[in-house]
Amino acid sequence: MKRSLYGYLILLSLIWGGSFFFIKILLQYYGPGSIAFLRSAFGIVAVLAYMLIRRQPIRFRHIPWIPMIAVGLMQTAVPWSLIGFSETRLSSSTASVLNATTPLWTLMLGLAFFGRKSNRFQWIGLGLGFVGLLVLLDIRPSKILDSDLTGFGAMLLATFFYGVSSQLSKKYLHQVTLVETVLCTLAVGCIGSGILAFGFEPFSLAPLLQDRSVIFALIGLGCMGSAVAYFLFYHLVQKGSAEFSTMSTYLIPATAIVWGALLLDEPVHASLLTGMALILCGVFLTGRTPGKSRRVKAGSELQG
Questions:
Q1: DSSP character for 55?
Q2: Are 76 and 188 in contact (CB under 8 A)?
Q3: What's 63's DSSP letter?
Q4: Nearest-CA neighbor of 130 among 303, 275, 237?
Q5: CB-hemisphere CA count at 13 Å for 258?
């Protein structure tokens, strides 16, 4: 795994770690579907502005629309709505732990349906990262099992969809440019969540006009947490792997705590440093390919 990809993964987790603060602000005014719709809409505006500045066209005829629509729904509209709903029933720490099952779903789905192969480093890395997450958040397994079952199930279903969409994008969208993938993903998500928002939730633009914090939250969540973040995410999927890209869910709780310490003067405990160290070790191991360098070295020695 290229070293630059680890940097992109950390940057992605920093952006998504801050997204939880914006979601909490918006939940005071909007339902989960409405937040997903507005998030997608603001993300689309940011991507279109980027395309206009770069004068970059989109090749509609070259896009595999069936996989793209599936990825768009399962990467944005459906899981965002489920996560927004689950956060009304679960604590942030429990939601973070359940969200971190995404890499496990991604790996298992890849093995079962997408012809992916695993190695011992991936399994060790996933396990080590998950233990680090529990240490970081100071959570006991019994506390998670005592959570609201509806919220629990909604969050797990969201991570399942994340796993499916990551594998689909790796297999079917590798010939689509990053800007096309991000724009189409957000467009599909905007349409899907818009149907949910306008059909089943009370929706009003009044908070946008009356409260600056709502605009600020949507810029952070839509432009950064959706547009910029998805550029990074799909780059990690295509240049790395679906499994590696979803390891950001292990880092997100840590970065959320870092943002809390920097912006809200929240205390930083020793468990943060210990958990962070375990998570980073897990991320490193997940990105490793066992024996590759040794096989190359042994082959060169035999040739010599």
A1: T
A2: yes
A3: S
A4: 275
A5: 17
Find the mean pLDDT for residues 140-162: 83
Rounded distance between C-alpha atoms, residue 158 and residue 60, angstroms: 28
In angstroms, the Cα distances linking 14 to 7, 18, 38, 256 are 11, 6, 21, 7
Q: Is 36 exposed, middle or buried (0-12, 13-18, 19+ CB in 10 A)?
A: buried
Which tokens is 86 given? 């689950």
Integer distance in angstroms from the first to the last C-alpha of the chain? Answer: 27
Burial-class residue 171 by CB neighbours within 10 Å (0-12, 13-18, 19+).
middle
Cβ-Cβ contacts under 8 Å for 171 (sequence gap 6 or more): 67, 114
Runs of H (alpha helix) within the chain: 3-26, 32-54, 65-72, 78-86, 92-99, 102-113, 120-137, 141-145, 149-172, 178-200, 206-210, 212-218, 229-239, 242-245, 248-264, 270-286, 292-303
Per-residue model confidence as pLDDT tens digits over 95-112? 878 888 899 899 999 999
Cα(248)–Cα(5) distance, integer angstroms: 11
Q: Which amino acid is it at 178?
A: L
pTM score of the predicted model? 0.85
